[in-house]
Specification:
alpha+beta, Jelly Rolls, 49% helix, RmlC-like_jellyroll, cNMP-bd_dom_sf, cNMP-bd_dom, activator
Amino acid sequence: MTDILLKYMSEFTLMSEDEQRAISESLRIEEYKKGKYLLRQGELSSIKCYFVLEGCVRQFFIDESGKEVTSNFYTEEQAIPVINEKTQGDLAKYFLVCVENCIIVVGDVATENMMFNKYPQLEMMIRKMMEINIGEMQEQFGGFISSSPEERYKTVLRQRPHLIDRVPQHQLASYLGITPESLSRIKKRIKKSNY
């Protein structure tokens, strides 16, 4: 699992192998079972960040009508955005739950700051990774807003095909902003057209 982290350290920093090894050995890596909540809407939020090494984490919230709305899925090599200092002590606005058994790097601000002081290039690496992550999220969000449900599904097929078989269809439908029945109809149309 630490091979993924070492890959990023090699790609984004000039740290020595000894520094890379020391960092990877000091990271907190946790295993979570399918169904484990990392965060619950309405709980006091804390400052944590996550990096998925293996598995899938769903982000969702309960709207005013009591309906679950899926806003994202995080899979291998994706950072789950930090719940920042401004929101510490506020009530969390969404849930994070493991859709599969997961292996996740868990970080907190105190440890992160200590590591950044000891290894300044680590902060640069995290910043670059977050810039990439935010850029991808902005692109996806812009595309989703301006596209039809069928185009959204085709985008998932192109950009994140692994989600199709990994997450329950009702959650995928929610992520696409449609009903499960609409998703079934779209899948049938696409299958007939040999997309």
